[in-house]
Amino acid sequence: MYRINRSSNSIQRLEKKSFSGLGFREREHLQEWIAKQPDVLGEDLLIIQKEFSGFNDTQERLDLLALDKQGALVIIENKLDDTGRDVTWQALKYASYCSGLSKSNIANIYQQYLDRSQPGTKAEDLLSEFFDNQDFADITLNKGVTQRIMLIAANFRKEVTSTVLWLLNFKVRLQCFRATPYAMGEELFLNVEQIIPTQDTEEYMIGMAEKAQDDIEDQVEQKHRHITRREFWGRVIEAMNETQSSLYQSISPGDSSWIGAGSGVGGIGLHFVATRQYGRAELYIDRPDKADNEYVFGQLLARKEEIERDFGGPLEWEPLEGRKACRIKAEAPGNIFERENWDSMVSFMVDAMFRLERAVKGPLREVWAARRNQAAADTGRQPET
User: Fold this and answer.
1) Cα–Cα–Cα angle for 161, 164, 170, nearest 5°?
2) Per the domain annotation, does 187 fall within a domain?
3) What pLDDT score was predicted for residue 26?
4) Whole-number Cα distances in Å, 350 to 231, 262, 339, 345
5) What DSSP line would sit under 87-143, residue for residue?
6) What is the 8-class DSSP label of residue 384?
7) Over the chain (385 residues), what is each successive 10-residue block's mean pLDDT?
């Protein structure tokens, strides 16, 4: 750090010092400086207690307790020339202890602080003033897991910075500030700079932390969905195999939103599908050649009356415009992730698949045989089955 000398149009280096070398102490000096000038940490903070020890069954004391403008509690831990190894764990403990403080607890803690520092001042009045003159009854304090941590020291050990950076990925609201004393002659200076996350990258790092946490939550949710689906499909297959159909005898449960069995024609399957909105049984026509799919669907549609009579009710016929595949289905509302729906969903889907297989098996075989014969006549060779 340098001092600008206007008269000589030059700069003069300030001598970097240590707190201990200057005779400064953590509690008597650094803590007092921050308590009296909390905006040195880059924002408006209201100090509500020093050396707070109001934790059940423990004699531990956190250095400074503050509130930010959003009503979140801020745990401020000061170390002088070295953080030590355990400052992160220490601060996390304090944050966990403070997470249970109610609005009235916080007001009482602040009142105790004011009774010592500003006798006769009411905590509720100063809290209202700090929160832009809102009525105390309308102020929200310490909501959910909004607690924040600020660590202040001249030097941060690698094990501390590594832990802090890792914690940021889990949306822990944690900042590190480097406090450095300087001297020039008899004059002393203090520089406080935020080093983690650096101020110009803080928004980016918060965004990355949120994404990382979302990814973790997505993985957990996906694992849960996969487990649920495998269990559901196990129920469906078991129920299907209790019918006279052998369609799903060799099929195992999967973790997708659908499972399928062959119809006897390549690329055309008899599928079960279950989502958060519906459960269904379908004939899914998805051969490599779009023309084959359109031909099969069209020929079956021409026999709609016969097929629906054998099915025992109406079916939904979907040419799926803009896609290669076509579909014939029976569908009902349901949610695979609500277990109370499973009995009715399984019953509907299995019954629909049993009747769908019976209704389309003969017509599909005849339609595909006609398609093969047509292809044979056109090309002089047997087409792929």
Assistant:
1) 155
2) yes
3) 93
4) 15, 16, 17, 8
5) HHHHHHHHHHHHTT--HHHHHHHHHHHHHHHSTT--HHHHHHHHTTT--GGG---S-
6) P
7) 91 93 94 95 95 77 94 95 89 93 95 94 94 91 93 93 88 92 93 83 56 57 81 95 94 92 94 94 95 94 96 95 93 93 96 96 93 76 54
Domain holding 342, by residue range, is 222-379
For residue 328, which of 362, 310, 301, 350 has the smallest C-alpha distance?
301
Angle at 173 between CA 166 and CA 54, to 5 degrees: 115
Note whether 176 and 167 are within 8 A (CB).
no
Structure tokens at 248: 């799903």
Cα–Cα distance between 244 and 242 in angstroms, integer? 7
Does residue 228 lie within any of the structural domains?
A: yes
Rounded-to-integer distance, Cα 62 and Cα 95, Å: 9
Please indicate, yes or no, whether residues 246 and 342 belong to a single structural domain of this protein. Answer: yes
- Give Cα separations from 43 to 156, 190, 194, 206 (angstroms): 22, 17, 12, 17
Residue 294: its H or E element: helix 290-302
Cα 143 to Cα 102, 132, 140, distances in angstroms: 9, 18, 7
The answer to whether residue 172 sits within a structural domain is yes
- Determine the pLDDT at residue 54: 75
Rounded to a whole number, what is the distance in angstroms from the first to the last CA of the chain? 80
Q: How many whole angstroms separate alpha carbon 30 and alpha carbon 317?
A: 76
H or E stretch at 316: strand 316-318
pLDDT of residue 16: 94
pLDDT for the residue numbered 37: 95
Q: Per the domain annotation, does 210 fall within a domain?
A: no
Burial track 139-168 (b if 16+ CB lie within 10 A, e otherwise): bebbeeebbbbbbbbbebbeebbebbeebb
For residues 73 and 91, the answer to whether their CB atoms sit within 8 Å is no
Rounded Cα distance, 268 and 283, in Å: 7
The pTM for the full model equals 0.57
For tokens 């423990």, what's the residue?
58
